[in-house]
Design brief:
Order of helices and strands of chain A: HEEHHHHHEEEHEHEHEHEHE
Number of strands of chain B: 8
CATH class of chain A: Alpha Beta
Radius of gyration of chain A: 24 Å
Strand content of chain A: 15-25%
Helix content of chain A: 40-55%
Structural class of chain A: alpha/beta
CATH superfamily of chain B: Aldolase class I
Helix content of chain B: 40-55%
CATH architecture of chain B: Alpha-Beta Barrel
Distance between the termini of chain A: 109 Å
Radius of gyration of chain B: 19 Å
CATH class of chain B: Alpha Beta
Distance between the termini of chain B: 41 Å
Number of strands of chain A: 10
CATH superfamily of chain A: Aldehyde Dehydrogenase, Chain A, domain 1
Strand content of chain B: 5-15%
Strand order of the largest sheet of chain B: 7-6-5-4-3-2-1-8
Largest sheet of chain B: 8 strands, parallel
CATH topology of chain A: Aldehyde Dehydrogenase, Chain A, domain 1
Largest sheet of chain A: 5 strands, parallel
Oligomer: heterodimer
Number of helices of chain B: 11
Structural class of chain B: alpha/beta
CATH architecture of chain A: 3-Layer(aba) Sandwich
Largest interface: A-B, 9 and 7 residues
Shape of chain B: globular
């Protein structure tokens, strides 16, 4: 009779795979089958699959399958806009302090799940160093915008001199629902850099993730979900930009559309579609989201409308 | 009118599981393109545009009537709604505003929405509404009496109100949300039709649940059986909780599959709703323009 040490490796392998249980009693614990995550989309605080039932397969550079990713349709977008519209007014009515707290909370949650984001980014082709620095920068950027939540109003408001007995002042107000075609080359920081300035200003968003690097977008949705962010404030879809671009820009209930990239035909299309309801088309063509030039209170103001009030006063 | 032997005494009992299965099958239909546009316009033409708030004013009612006549003039070929539905004291204002149009004025009556009053008061109120010019009367049944098993009382009351209606059409609201079972819904439908209802209607809109598809199917089947028995065609009006175009189209599918083409018109089928009209309009405009719409570009009623 053979004992363990005499078994060759192929035989060992065979024993191991037999119903996942070893028969020789030495190592009775079978090899556990990992539970793989289903990457779904994020609409109205829930994680549905795309209503279209379509998927695309995401592979790493060795050709191994990483995930089946939802290929969202225009109807998913429509549903997300309904949720975003419903959430917009209550979100804008939250105090600036509270919005800032929630953004900071998102940063905290992201910090706690750093490792998962780094591993997803590296699965999608980044070096470990690049992945770590992208995650770190994303966290810092959330803190940056959390800090601006009760300050940008002070910087951009004004008391205006007028030639009558009026107290005349201008304050920024959120534009409403913002659709975002997030950067294709950055799985996480691109999304964070476009979503954070929108929501800190009281807008709600529907964002399309990078189609080549969608994993972090879905995991980021889980972070948002556990950060006291009300349902519908951020909705995240995965899928193909070419299919959704015109819907993101022509929906009448969307007030601003952020486009990241430099495809001239896409930009033209967005600008034309935006004219339908005079939504703001915002084109961010510079494709470097890592450095500090990608964060600015101007990004918040891109999504604000200025309201001027005339208030009668005595002599 | 004397309560003789009524067919409602042997109303069938309802298989709830069967009803729900049938509904889930019917609501899976996919209606697209031209069929969808036809259905949307048909649904709009069947809407009873409703305002039944204690805070209603003549101004609000006038606004509603203008919305009824001009749902959305920016797109040609959009039908007017079937009727406006108001409290009796607002009938005159509605009638004046709608003069010259084919839109009917419906008045809720009989101590709407509770029905907790004497028969004398209910008949008085109904006569008042008709005198003011109401073309249709929406009455509520006495649910307390019904649930106590006093079916003859309910029958007689409906018959008495029908008499007070004169030429006006009578819709009988069963308030199915308070009847607890589908068996009761069927029984109440049979009583109402026997007693002379021109329409049977699910709900006041003041109680949850209001209209649901299973309840509507049961009532439509009651109408079908009544038609086979007597040859009389009774109308149907689901009301309350129907806020989206998608849901409205599902009701039309159930209607078409249960009663057929003869009921697919505003004379035989109505939606009682306040926000449905705008959602239908948004979907109609979406079909025309290909672009998803925003409520900001549609008049509030």
């Amino acid at each position: 009779m053979k004992n363990d040490s005499e078994m060759d490796s192929t035989e060992k392998q065979k024993t191991k795979t037999l119903n996942g249980v070893q028969s020789n009693g030495q190592d009775s614990k079978g090899k556990r089958i990992d539970v793989l995550k289903t990457y779904k989309i994020y609409i109205d605080g829930k994680f549905p699959r795309t209503e279209s039932g379509r998927y695309y397969v995401l592979k790493n550079k060795d050709g191994d399958i990483l995930a089946n990713v939802c290929q969202s349709s225009r109807k998913d977008f429509r549903d997300a806009v309904v949720a975003a519209r419903k959430a917009q007014h209550p979100w804008a009515s939250r105090s600036a302090y509270n919005k800032g707290q929630i953004l900071y909370r998102i940063a905290e949650m992201l910090e706690g799940r750093k490792a998962q984001f780094i591993s997803e980014l590296s699965d999608q082709g980044l070096s470990m160093a690049a992945a770590s620095s992208e995650v770190a920068q994303s966290i810092d950027r959330l803190v940056y915008y959390a800090g601006w939540s009760d300050k940008y109003q002070q910087v951009y408001s004004s008391v205006n001199p007028v030639e009558s007995s009026h107290f005349n002042f201008s304050v920024p107000e959120p534009t409403g629902v913002v659709s975002i075609l997030s950067p294709e080359n950055y799985g996480l920081i691109g999304l964070v850099s476009t979503i954070a300035p929108a929501i800190v200003g009281g807008n709600t968003v529907v964002a399309l993730s990078s189609s080549a690097k969608p994993l972090c977008a879905v995991t980021f949705a889980e972070v948002l979900h556990s950060s006291d962010l009300p349902a519908g404030v951020v909705n995240i879809l995965t899928g193909h930009r070419s299919e959704l671009l015109s819907h993101f820009s022509n929906h009448m209930d969307v007030n601003a559309c952020i486009y990241t990239g430099d495809n001239a035909a896409d930009i033209k299309k967005i600008q034309e579609n935006a004219s339908l309801n005079v939504k703001r088309p915002l084109i961010y063509s510079k494709d470097n989201w890592m450095d500090d030039s990608s964060q600015s209170p101007h990004r918040i103001m891109d999504l604000q409308e200025i309201k001027t009030t005339w208030h009668p006063i005595g002599q | 009118m004397k309560a003789t032997k009524h067919a409602f005494m042997d109303s069938p009992s309802i298989d709830q599981v069967g009803v729900e299965e049938r509904i889930s099958r019917l609501t899976k239909r996919s209606i697209k393109k031209e069929s969808k546009l036809t259905a949307l316009k048909m649904a709009l033409s069947m809407v009873d545009l409703t305002t039944l708030d204690a805070k209603d004013t003549p101004g609000k009612v006038r606004q509603l009537c203008i919305k009824a006549m001009h749902p959305h003039d920016a797109v040609p070929g959009i039908p007017q709604v079937a009727a406006v539905c108001v409290y009796p004291t607002m009938v005159r204002v509605a009638k004046e505003t709608l003069k010259g149009s084919k839109i009917q004025v419906a008045a809720v009556s009989t101590a709407f929405p509770s029905g907790m009053s004497t028969r004398k008061v209910k008949i008085e109120e109904t006569r008042y509404a008709v005198n003011e010019g109401a073309d249709e009367i929406d009455m509520v049944i006495s649910r307390g009496h019904f649930l106590q098993g006093e079916y003859n009382y309910v029958f007689d009351e409906i018959a008495a109100v029908k008499e007070a209606c004169g030429a006006a059409h009578l819709k009988v609201i069963l308030e199915t949300g308070e009847l607890s079972t589908l068996d009761n819904v069927r029984l109440a439908s049979d009583i109402a039709m026997q007693a002379g209802a021109d329409f049977i209607k699910t709900s006041t809109g003041k109680i949850q649940p209001a209209a649901t598809l299973p309840v509507t199917l049961v009532m439509l089947e009651a109408i079908r059986d009544f038609y086979y028995e007597t040859g009389k065609k009774i109308g149907m009006k689901p009301a309350g909780g129907i806020a989206t175009a998608k849901l409205a189209i599902q009701y039309l599918v159930v209607l078409r599959e249960t009663l057929g083409e003869d009921w697919l018109n505003p004379k035989m089928f109505r939606f009682g709703a306040s926000t449905l009209a705008n959602d239908l309009l948004m979907q109609i405009v979406k079909e025309h323009s290909g672009v998803y719409q925003s409520i900001d570009y549609f008049s509030k009623d």
